[in-house]
Amino acid sequence: KTNTAADEIMLNDEQIRLGNIQTDTIRNGMIGDKVILTATLNTDETKVNSINARIMGRIDRLYFKNMGDFVSKGAHLYDLYSEELNNAKQEYIAALEKQQTLDNSIIDFNRLVQSAKQKLLLWGMSEAQVNELAKTKKASPLTSFYSNESGFITELPVMEGQYVSEGSTVVKLANLSSLWAEAQVYTSQLAELNSNSIATVRLPDFDNKEIKGKIEFVNPEINPDTRINLIRVSIPNQGNQLKPGMPAYVLLKSPQRQSLTLPIDAVLRDSKGATVWIQTSQNTFKSVMVQTGLESDERIEIKSGVAIGDVVVIRGAYLLQSEFIFKKGANPMDGMKM
């Protein structure tokens, strides 16, 4: 029996038969650049509108109170009691009355009326509301405010009876005509993504329906601890059927390319890296470190570490590994360097 080198292991025919150890010779093979990522559907933040209070006051009544409610453009949103706004309404009515009775005086009442009207418009009243005030000359203590956008409520930070200050958010509305499918991606996979990558979003809640999407954003900040990145795919949402929070899968594909590939079971991976067992001579095997690339359904790309013509163990690699540790008392990966 020949002595094996320190990094090799020799088995007899019976062990090879019992361990069902099978080998294959490496040759070039096609691998499709297919990566499947777990994702979540989220609101497209570019389509979120914030409706803010234009003036300080107390929210007397809210007409929409639930998250997720749909608000159409022009819908009555809330009524506000505002001392300042009420004073401005009275100023406007007074300016109009003076304009009518003292039109020949030396004071330019047109300017006063215009200035009082501008103030009301600036504080959020509509042209129609101001015209109605001019007609009736009756100022209601409450002022109605209407939505200038349509969308689903994603934030509602106020309650009835609450005071709001100028500029504070009353409601946030999201247009859900398109959504973001956001997925985490490993840095090693990121190198394979390019602007030509076609992203397909698969929706398990809709019988795995697939929607083609566009990669809008790849987060450039790589988390040093996890080496994980965020990618965002924008997809259309016809009829607003899809809702934020739904699970999804992002399938990324690029054109196929020629590469060295092995069955996934041939490659052993742990925290130190990836290895394969190659046959060096009759019944003798050696563990070598490899650099892996893309994975498809059953195969994995080998970027370096083995070459065309090498005879690789494609079945029984785990058994060889444990046999080596048992016989040599050490892991074949110890001390290996790529």
Task: Please supply descriptive tags for the structure shown above.
338 residues, alpha+beta, 6-stranded antiparallel barrel, 4-stranded antiparallel beta sheet, 19% helix
Walk me through this protein's architecture:
It contains 6 helices and 21 strands. The protein is an alpha+beta fold and 338 residues long. A 6-stranded antiparallel beta barrel has the order 3-12-15-14-13-16. Strands 4-11-9-6 form a 4-stranded antiparallel sheet, with no helix packed on it. A 4-stranded antiparallel sheet has the order 8-7-5-10. A hairpin with a 3-residue loop joins strand 19 (284-295) and strand 20 (299-304). Helix 2 packs antiparallel against helix 3. The protein is rod-shaped, with a radius of gyration of 35 Å. The protein starts with 7 loop residues before the first strand and ends in a 10-residue tail after the last helix.
* Shape field: rod-shaped
Q: Whole-number radius of gyration?
A: 35 Å
Order the strands across the largest sheet as they lie in space: 3-12-15-14-13-16
Low-confidence stretches at least 5 residues in length (pLDDT < 50)? none
Please give a quick description of this structure.
The chain has about 350 residues and is α+β, with helices and mostly antiparallel strands. The chain has 6 helices and 21 strands.
Topology:
Layout: E1 8-10, H1 13-18, E2 22-25, E3 28-43, E4 48-52, E5 57-62, E6 70-71, E7 76-81, H2 83-101, H3 109-122, H4 127-136, E8 142-146, E9 151-155, E10 163-164, E11 169-174, E12 178-186, H5 187-190, E13 198-203, E14 209-218, E15 228-236, E16 247-263, E17 268-270, E18 273-281, E19 284-295, E20 299-304, E21 311-315, H6 317-328
Antiparallel strand pairs: 1-19, 2-21, 3-12, 3-16, 4-11, 5-7, 5-10, 6-9, 7-8, 9-11, 12-15, 13-14, 13-16, 14-15, 16-20, 17-18, 18-19, 19-20
Helix pairs in contact: 2-3
